[in-house]
Amino acid sequence: MTYRELLKAQAERLESTGNDNALFDCSELLGLAMGIDIRSGSFESALDGQAESSVKAKFEELCSRRANGEPLQYLLGEWEFYGIPIKVGKGVLIPRQDTETLVELAVSKCKNSEDIVIADLCSGSGCIALALEKYLRCREVYAVEKSEAATGYLSENVKMNASAIKLVMGDVLDEGCAVTIPECDLIVCNPPYLTGEDMERLQREVTHEPSEALFGGEDGLDFYRAVTRIWKNRLKTGGTLIYEIGIGQEDDVMQIMVQHGFENVRCKPDPCGIMRCVIGTKK
C-alpha cells in the first residue's frame, strides 16, 4: 500500500464519523507520522512511495484518536496563531482564528504608541501576549494564568519564540494578583465565557479542552463582571481594555464596562460577522 492509498482510506474512515475536514486532518497526521511538513513539495512526492509499517501504525493510531474526538491541534502538539507557532496539548485552550480579531483590534488601536505596558489576562498558551509583543512596541508584557498545565505550555511558547514576556501565575479574579502588575496602557482578556447551557451541548472535540477555560458562570458573564471591577484599577487613565466575547454577549459586556466608567465602548465583529470583541477606554 502506498502512502496515498493509506491517506485515502483513513480520510474516508474519518469522514464517515462526521468530520468535514477529514482529508486535511489526515494529511496533517500523515505528515506528522512521516516527519514531513505537508506544505513542502517533498510530502506530495513521498505519497507514491510504499508505506513503511512503523509509519502506517503511527498514522492509523493518530487517526483513531482523531476519530474519537481528540482535537487535531492536540495530536499535532503545535498550532499557528497570527503567524506564530504555539505549542498546545491537553490542559490548555486551543488558539482559534476568532481570537485573532482581538489581536487585530489591539494592534490597530496601539500601533502608533511606543513603550507600552500590556497585561494579557487568562493567558493560556500565551498566544495573544506573544502576538502583541511581536506586533506592538512594548516595554513590558505580562501574561497572567492560574492553571499549572496551561502555564507549562505558556513557558514553552515564551522560550520557543525567544520572548521577553513576564509570566505571572495567579488568578485574575484575585485582587492580590492584580496589584502585582504595574499600571498598563493595554489590558486584554479572552476569559471563559460559555454559559451553563453551552457547556451541556459542547461539541465532542471541545470536551477535551479544560472546562475551567470555557465555563464563565451560568450566564457566561462572571469573568467580565469581576475582571472589569478589579483590573480597571491597573489601567492608566486613557488606557484600553479589550475583551473577546461569546456570541450575543456584546450588549451585556458593553453595559458592564460602561457601568464601570469606561468611555468609547464599542464592539467589533470577526471575519464571519459575529461580534467578537468589546473595547473601551478608561476615563
UniProtKB/TrEMBL annotation:
InterPro entries: DNA_methylase_N6_adenine_CS (IPR002052), HemK-like (IPR004556), N5-glutamine_MTase (IPR050320), PrmC_N (IPR040758), RF_methyltr_PrmC (IPR019874), SAM-dependent_MTases_sf (IPR029063), Small_mtfrase_dom (IPR007848)
Any matching Pfam family: PrmC_N
Keywords: Methyltransferase, S-adenosyl-L-methionine, Transferase
Presence of keyword Heme: no
GO aspect biological process, one term: methylation
MF-aspect GO terms: nucleic acid binding; peptide chain release factor N(5)-glutamine methyltransferase activity
Domain Release factor glutamine methyltransferase N-terminal per the UniProt entry, residue ranges: 5-77
Alphabetized PANTHER family for the sequence: HEMK METHYLTRANSFERASE, MTRF1L RELEASE FACTOR GLUTAMINE METHYLTRANSFERASE
Descriptive protein name: peptide chain release factor N(5)-glutamine methyltransferase
Organism, scientific name: Ruminococcus albus
